[in-house]
Structure formats: structure tokens, C-alpha cells
Write a structure and sequence with these properties.
Low-confidence stretches: 232-236, 258-271
Distance between the termini: 51 Å
Structural class: alpha/beta
Number of strands: 26
Strand content: 5-15%
Largest sheet: 8 strands, mixed
Number of helices: 35
């Protein structure tokens, strides 16, 4: 094995001075089992020098080292460090890592349903918990020295992203923020904003993957490289798509019509020929196993698809583990699931799930029980589960690297529609491939199907542009908290400092420059006009008024003339000879059928002099028609007979009736006093007789076009700048109307109802406050209160037919009142141009009511299924915990002495049992 060259004396001296300058980093790195990369060293050095840090690096690159160094510094300095994550699973994982390193006494955990050693020097928490602590004025904040914000790119999340910006803006100045982000293309912009709002911040960007990633496509049973001669060491290299792959997919694509058509084939499909069938999930697993590419994560983007994949592998008899691994799996599963009630194991599908784990594969999605998901994660990290079939939720920060990542499809359902994966999503999903310190290289595999173009896959795999876009916007709870803490004026200033406003203001910089250029051009246009510019504008305005009046009169004249023409056609009778003034049928014609209709305009059927027969309409006559005479016609006319048409045409020609001469119609414009007056003013205007009039007019027309464009751009800038402050003012006006804030001494004040709202952190926070204010929940028992409160947090995954079932008693009345308040609130929101509060959903009321009454999990889930609800055990636990969270807030807001507060406390105790309580300390 080749040895690395010894450093020169100069290099050794420089390294020695660097270590002396950063003693804490020297101690920290000495405890590490691996040598730090350059970007990790730069981030840690900046932190020890007293700077805030933003680290942007690919998934699996090891950016958490910088976050863990913040923990080390806090412990060394005797200060607190909060380590925040976007999801509870990641919080639990990071808590376990830090406890293993620093011990139970030094580390705590705070999530929505877990509280362990919350006063510890280092506390891991979800970002929402820290936001709530800041608003509540927690006593821990003055002792806080560092805040690590893991997965800080979450601030782009449209539902929860605002929380990250709230935390960054509200943290005291003395707290150093460590932001850890996936690679984004506008890291410098994000860093500039952090410098603006947090002070000195060092931006460290590293796009190099520590484990090279190779891209492949699985076409049938062949695994082919996506790129020819790809070189991960040079990400800037121009990549060329594998020509063998292109030929193979072109050949396979010939059978595409047979693949995706409905039963019986698709119109236009070849009548015979081989039918393309994608490899089964069992085949894919065996193919990866034989190629030495396990462990693997297979992203399916469907809960049902993940469960079906596991079932297929079990039915096939596939086994990826030996006896010793099975024994270890059983030990871990028993320890992880010890808290689950014995009677619930059957309904949870425990034994089927356990058998799949022992064979070496598992599913992972939001519908799984939390204990099941955590077990799968541990077994996968330990290498005991070889294949995980997962939805995209697995890619959200959880540390579960694999050797290979497989994408079954490049389309996913986003809750509203099926959409293509973005380059950022593709990078995040495939970023799981390649375990640092274990794998020499990682592998990303896209399963080919008809319609999947290798060029499109190459575009996803090679795109490096995925900017971070803020989703920050003020809400009701945020507004009252800001007014309560700093007042409305200071709150507006704070909102102006948000990353959302920062980006909005930057987006109009180019527009503002364009406005300035336009204004310079407008000045040049005025200088180019000879004579008085204002008089030329007057003259142009007069011409515009004349043109507009002429168009109006023309429209009126056309409408009235059509009506008069239709009336004249209604008067025609059989045998009338009429003139057809223009078109292919111009000349004399005789009416053989008046074509009257009680609903539509008349369409008389005629025969012309050249023996044509057919209906005419109002459009054939520019003016009312009058009969020129009459001829005698047979009683019964058979127009399909050429002889009949010939005889009628002959009679018409021999009738001696001549076409009238053309008469010039007098238009309405000639008699319009307003138009006459405008034309007279135009002729009398000083500019009318100018020799350069037409040249000047062309300059004025250019001036007006550019002026209109400039005004539009100015409106765009005005709508963008200060947009958050204006939204905040609209929220305050609504809150003022409803009694949550009131004016006083030149500054808004938060009322008693407003103080309650400051402590309600829910998507439907104002609706919950309104229910409390109006006494909608008064008189409800614990189970009834849980049922009604669930309507504010539950959101069905899909629309279900019919009305959801509700418990009896007082629940239907309280539900109706809640819905009525929601209708009134959304009407006010529409009037104030605010985002609408989500409609309450009663789909979880019946299951949570029965659970609060003490019924078994099996009965609750069976009843939900009977009522047509799609509710897995994992969904049930997740929604129960969200109901508990809101009930806890109601109890804290009202106090246990209040009847509703007392009912909320009892409901929490009734809900927090069995599988709902398992794993929640």
C-alpha cells in the first residue's frame, strides 16, 4: 500500500500554528475516528473564532460535524446549546448520538410529545419547540450560546418553513447560529441575509461528495450506466449519455403501446409482438443482490406500493439474512416493541412485519407505527435489513445511508396532483447512496419504463441548480406574539428583515433598473418632439377619444342593424322576391320557406337565379331586407328535385323584377353630436396644422407605450416591496375587528383573547381561539372534546364520499357551531385578502372519540374501515398525538380550573395510552 508523503517542514509548521490558534477544534478532532475534510475544518474554525456559520454540503458529506462542534464548544464554555431538527425522528436519532458521546445528564430531548431532561446543557428539539420557547420568553434563552439548525433548507417548506425564519429573527444577538443545509445554488444569497440579520456569518459551501455516485438505469433485467465514462471526481465535466443505453431504450420503446394501454390494448397498438413487462420488485432485489449493490433503498412514492413490495418479497420466499442475523433482529425487535400492548399486535400486522424484517426487507412510510419505523431505521443502519421500500419521507434528514438507491418512477403525488421530480428532489433522494467509511462508491438506479427518456434522467442527475426560496409569511399567532413582544411598528421592521422580503426586494432590483432606463428613454422622446410636448399629448388624446367614440358607435350600429335585419326577415313570406346584396349568392332570390323559429333568428330558405337552394341568415344581409315583389309558387315544393329548382329559377328570371341600385347608408356617426364636437376640436387644435405633425405623433405614440410599460413595472415593484408588512397590517385589521388586538396610545395592544391566541400553535390557531371565545366547546365531556378538537387538526389524505360519522350527544351541535365560525372567519379573510383557514374535517372525530372512551385499537380501526375511512395504525397514532398536542395547548391556555381546560386535561390522559403512548416519554 502506498504511503502518503510526509509534510514539508513549512507545512508542518503551518499546521502547528493552525492547531494552536484553534485549541478546541484540536481537542474535538482528536476524539474523532476519521480525519476532517477541509469544509468541516473551515466551518469549525469559523465557529471557534466567534462567527455564525452556514454549511451547505451534499447529503452524507458530514456537515453535522460542525453542528456537533457547536455542542462541544457550549460544553467547554459552560453555556447551553440547542440542536434543532425538522422532524421528531431526526431529533430522536440525534439525541441518541449525543447521549452516547456526552452521557444522559448533559443531553435532553424536547419534541411535541417527548420531554427528557429539558434543563440539560445540550437539548435536542424540533424547531417548533424552540419557536414556542422564544415566544414564551423561556428562562433558558439568556444562558443560550449556540443554536444548531439542522436541515435549515426546510425554510422553503410551504407549510412549516416560516418557523425557521421566526427562530433566526427572534434569537438574541449573542447566540451563534449554525445552519446546516443541503447543497443549494443560492447559498451566498442566504448567507448574505444571515449576515444582515445575525451579524458576522461565514458561508462554507462544498459540492464534493465524499463517496462518488454512479448513475444507472435498469432496463428490463439489464443494469446500464447512464453516462459514458462518467467521472465523479470532476463534477464540471461535460457528461455524455451512454449510447448503449439509448439504443436499448429505443428498442424497448417500440413495445410501449402494449405496456400502458387499457385492457385489450390501445388504439393504434401493434396487433402482435412481445409485451414489455417491468422487472418485479423481487427481480430488482435479486439483481441488486447478485451485483453486490445491497443494502438499497427503493423509493416507490406510494404507501400501498411499499406494503405490496414487502408482501411480494415474502410470498416469493426470498431471504437475505442468515440464522445469526435473524437472532439479532429478533432481539432488537423485542426491545423496540416491548411497550406495545400484546392485544394490539394482531391488528398492527406485527407478525407479518416481523417476518419480513427477519428475511431482510421492510417498508418505510408515514402510515407505519412510529415504533415500527424506528425499528426499521435501526436495523437498516446495522445492516440487518438489506432492502427498504420507502416513500420520499425517508429522505428528509434521517441518517439512513445505503449503498444503492433505486427510483421506481420519476413522478410522485404531491397531495394535489402527480408531478415530475425536480432536480433538487432527485439529488436529495439519490444522495442517500454511498455510506462514508463503508462504501467505495454509491449507486443511483432509475427503473426504465416506456415514456422514461434517458435524456430527461440525465438532466435530473446533472443539474446543479436548486435555489432556496423562502415560504415565510405572517400568520395570526405570529402577529399577536409580535405585537405582544415588540409592538406593531417594531413587528413591521422585523418582518422587513425576513429572508422572504430580502428575496422579494432583490427580485425587483433588475426591475427598478429597467424603470430608470425607461424614464431616461421617456425624457429622450420628449426632447425629440418639436413644439409643445403637452399640446401634442392633448392632440393625441383627442384622436384617441375620436377613435374610441367611432368604435362605440360602430358596435351600437352593428347591434341595432342586426336586430332590424332579423325583424325584416321575420316579415318575409313564401313567394317574396328579395335581393341578396353580396357574397357567392348575390342577386335575386325567391323565398320558398320563411324559416321562422320561436327561439333562434329566422333562416329563410331561398332559390336563386342560378338554381342554388339553401337557407340564408342575418349575416348575409348588412341591412334590413325588403321584398321587391312576389311570384306564384306551387303549394308543395320538392327542392331536392333539379327540375323544381330549374322551374323556380326560370320563373324568377321571367318575373321582370330588377335589382335596386346601391344606396349609400347614412351612418350613426354622421349624426352623433359628441363625435362632431370632437372632430371640430381636433381641426381647431394648434398642432393640427403643424408640418411635423405625423413625425411628432410617432414619437408621442412611442412615449405612451413606454410610459404604460413603466407604470406596470412600478405597480409590480410597489406590490413586492413591503409586501409582508402590508399582509401583517391586514391580519391586524381582522384581529382588531374580532377583539384580539385594540388600539391604544398610538400602538396596538393585545387583549385577553389575544393573549390566549399567543399560546395556540396550530394551523387553525384563530379558529381554535374563536371556538374558545364563543364557548363552542363548553359542556363537552373529555371524549366529546377530543372529537371536536380533532376537526381542527385532521386532514384526510383523499376526498371521501359522503359525510363522516359523528358521535351522538353534544358533538354534532359543537361541530356545526365550529363550522359556522369557520364560514364567518373565511368571509372576513376574503374581505381582508388573506389566506383562508383550512376547512375543519370531521373524518377523525369518530375514531378518536371511541379511543378516548377506552375502546381497543382493533375496534377503533375496524369501525373506521367500516365507515369507509383509510386509516392505518401509524396514521391513527400520528393524528391522536396531534389532537393531544392541541388539547394540551387548550388546557394550558384555560387552566385546569376552567371546565373546558379540565375536560382537555382528562381527554389527554384518556388518549395517551397503548400504542399512542408507546415511545412517547
Amino acid at each position: 500500500m502506498a504511503t502518503s508523503p510526509s509534510p514539508s517542514p513549512a507545512e508542518a509548521y503551518a499546521a502547528s500554528r493552525r492547531r494552536a490558534k484553534h485549541p478546541q477544534l484540536t481537542r474535538f478532532s482528536a476524539e474523532s475516528a476519521f480525519e476532517f475534510d477541509d469544509f468541516q475544518i473551515r466551518g469549525c474554525e469559523a465557529l471557534e473564532e466567534g462567527h455564525g456559520v452556514l454549511v451547505c454540503a451534499p447529503t452524507g458529506a458530514g456537515k453535522t460535524v460542525v453542528g456537533e462542534f457547536a455542542v462541544h464548544l457550549a460544553l467547554a464554555e459552560g453555556r447551553k446549546c440547542f440542536y434543532t431538527t425538522p422532524i421528531k425522528a431526526l431529533s430522536n436519532q440525534k439525541y441518541a448520538d449525543l447521549v452516547e458521546r456526552y452521557g444522559n445528564d448533559a443531553v435532553g430531548l424536547l419534541t411535541g410529545d417527548t420531554s427528557i431532561n429539558g434543563n440539560a446543557q445540550v437539548v435536542v428539539m424540533t424547531t417548533e419547540v424552540l419557536r414556542n420557547m422564544l415566544y414564551a420568553g423561556s428562562s433558558s434563552i439568556p444562558e443560550l450560546g449556540y443554536v444548531v439548525m439542522d436541515e435549515v433548507h426546510y425554510l422553503a417548506d410551504r407549510f412549516r418553513g416560516a418557523v425557521w425564519e421566526e427562530v433566526i429573527l427572534h434569537l438574541p444577538d449573542h447566540v451563534r447560529v449554525v445552519g446546516l443545509s443541503a447543497t443549494v445554488s443560492n447559498a451566498e444569497e442566504f448567507g448574505e441575509w444571515l449576515v444582515e440579520v445575525r451579524g458576522d456569518t461565514t458561508v462554507v459551501v462544498d459540492e464534493h461528495r465524499p463517496v462518488p455516485l454512479w448513475q444507472h438505469m435498469l432496463v428490463g433485467n439489464q443494469l446500464l450506466d447512464l453516462f459514458a465514462g462518467q467521472n465523479e471526481a470532476d463534477p464540471g465535466e461535460q457528461l455524455r449519455i451512454n449510447p448503449t443505453l439509448l439504443r436499448k431504450t429505443d428498442d424497448m420503446g417500440r413495445f410501449a403501446p402494449n405496456f400502458r394501454g387499457p385492457r385489450g390494448g390501445r388504439r393504434g397498438a401493434p396487433p402482435r409482438g412481445p409485451r414489455f413487462r417491468p422487472p418485479s420488485r423481487v427481480d430488482v432485489t435479486e439483481r441488486l443482490d447478485h451485483a453486490g449493490l445491497l443494502p438499497a433503498i427503493v423509493f416507490i412514492f406510494s404507501r400501498a406500493g411499499c406494503d405490496a413490495a414487502v408482501a411480494q418479497c415474502v410470498r416469493s420466499g426470498l431471504r437475505l439474512n442468515g440464522p445469526e442475523q435473524v437472532e439479532e433482529i429478533r432481539r432488537i425487535v423485542d426491545a423496540r416493541t416491548a411497550e406495545l400492548p400484546e392485544g394490539d399486535l394482531g391488528v398492527l400486522g406485527y407478525w407479518e412485519w416481523r417476518e419480513a424484517l427477519e428475511r431482510g426487507f421492510a417498508g418505510h412510510h408515514a402510515g407505519l407505527l412510529p415504533a415500527f419505523k424506528e425499528t426499521v431505521e435501526e436495523l437498516f443502519v446495522r445492516g440487518l435489513v438489506k432492502v427498504v421500500f420507502a416513500t420520499e419521507t425517508l429522505a428528509l434528514g434521517i441518517n439512513m445511508p445505503a449503498r444503492t438507491v433505486v427510483l421506481e418512477r420519476l413522478v410522485k403525488y404531491n397531495g394535489e396532483a402527480h408531478v415530475d421530480l425536480t432536480p433538487g428532489e432527485y439529488t436529495q433522494l439519490t444522495g442517500r447512496a454511498g455510506r462514508r467509511g463503508i462504501d467505495v462508491e454509491g449507486h443511483a438506479v432509475v427503473s426504465w419504463q416506456p415514456g422514461v427518456d434517458p435524456k430527461a434522467v440525465a438532466g435530473l442527475a446533472s443539474t446543479r441548480t436548486y435555489p432556496l426560496r423562502s415560504s415565510f409569511r405572517p400568520g395570526y399567532n405570529m402577529a399577536v406574539n409580535l405585537v405582544a413582544q415588540v409592538g406593531a411598528d417594531a413587528a413591521r421592521d422585523l418582518l422587513e428583515q425576513s429572508f422572504a422580503q430580502f428575496q422579494a426586494d432583490r427580485s425587483v432590483v433588475g426591475t427598478a433598473r429597467r424603470i430608470e432606463r425607461n424614464k431616461e428613454a421617456l425624457k429622450g422622446y420628449t426632447d425629440a418632439i418639436s413644439g409643445d410636448f403637452e399640446q401634442m399629448l392633448e392632440y393625441v388624446e383627442l384622436r384617441a377619444q375620436i377613435s374610441a367614440r367611432e368604435k362605440t358607435l360602430s358596435r351600437q350600429n352593428t347591434s341595432s342593424r342586426r336586430a332590424e335585419t332579423a325583424q325584416s326577415l321575420e316579415k318575409l313570406r313564401k313567394g317574396d322576391v328579395i335581393p341578396v346584396p353580396a357574397g357567392r349568392r348575390a342577386g335575386l332570390a325567391v323565398v320558398v320557406d320563411p324559416g321562422l323559429d320561436p327561439i333562434r333568428e329566422p333562416r329563410p330558405v331561398v332559390v336563386t337565379e342560378d338554381r342554388w337552394s339553401g337557407p340564408l341568415s342575418v349575416a348575409d344581409f348588412p341591412a334590413p331586407v325588403e321584398a321587391l315583389g312576389r311570384i306564384k309558387l306551387p303549394k308543395h315544393i320538392e327542392l331536392r328535385s333539379p327540375k323544381t329548382r330549374r322551374d323556380i329559377a326560370s320563373s324568377l328570371r321571367n318575373a321582370g323584377i330588377a335589382l335596386p341600385g346601391r344606396q349609400r347608408r347614412r351612418t350613426a356617426a354622421a349624426d352623433d353630436a359628441e363625435l362632431v364636437s370632437l372632430r371640430r376640436a381636433l381641426r381647431a387644435h394648434p398642432c393640427h396644422g403643424l408640418a411635423e405633425r405625423e413625425a411628432n405623433l410617432r414619437w408621442v405614440e412611442r412615449y405612451q407605450r413606454l410610459s404604460a410599460e413603466t407604470e406596470q413595472l412600478e405597480r409590480k415593484v410597489a406590490a413586492t416591496t413591503h409586501s409582508l408588512a402590508r399582509a401583517f397590517d391586514r391580519i391586524l385589521r381582522l384581529l382588531g375587528e374580532r377583539g384580539y388586538v385594540r388600539p391604544g396610545d398610538g400602538e396596538d395592544r393585545v387583549t385577553e383573547h389575544g393573549r390566549r391566541l399567543t399560546r395556540l400553535y396550530s394551523e387553525s390557531d384563530l379558529l381554535a381561539a374563536e371556538c374558545i371565545r364563543h364557548g363552542v366547546w363548553t359542556g363537552l365531556g373529555p371524549a366529546e372534546l377530543a372529537a371536536v378538537v380533532s376537526t381542527l387538526v385532521f386532514e384526510a389524505r383523499r376526498d371521501t364520499a359522503g359525510e363522516p360519522r359523528l358521535p351522538g350527544g353534544a358533538v354534532p351541535g359543537a361541530w356545526q357551531e365550529t363550522s359556522r365560525l369557520w364560514v364567518e372567519l373565511t368571509e372576513d379573510e376574503r374581505r381582508h385578502r388573506l389566506d383562508r383557514t383550512r376547512e375543519p374535517d370531521a373524518g377523525f372525530a369518530w375514531p378518536v372519540y371511541r379511543w378516548a372512551r377506552g375502546e381497543s385499537l382493533e375496534k377503533v380501526l375496524t369501525a373506521a374501515e367500516t365507515n369507509g375511512q383509510e386509516l392505518s395504525a401509524g396514521d391513527f397514532v400520528r393524528w391522536c398525538r396531534q389532537v393531544i398536542d392541541l388539547l394540551d395547548q387548550v388546557r394550558d391556555v384555560l387552566g385546569k380550573e376552567d371546565p373546558v381546560g379540565s375536560a382537555a386535561a382528562q381527554a389527554v390522559r384518556a388518549l395517551r395510552r397503548g400504542v399512542v403512548a408507546a415511545g412517547a416519554a
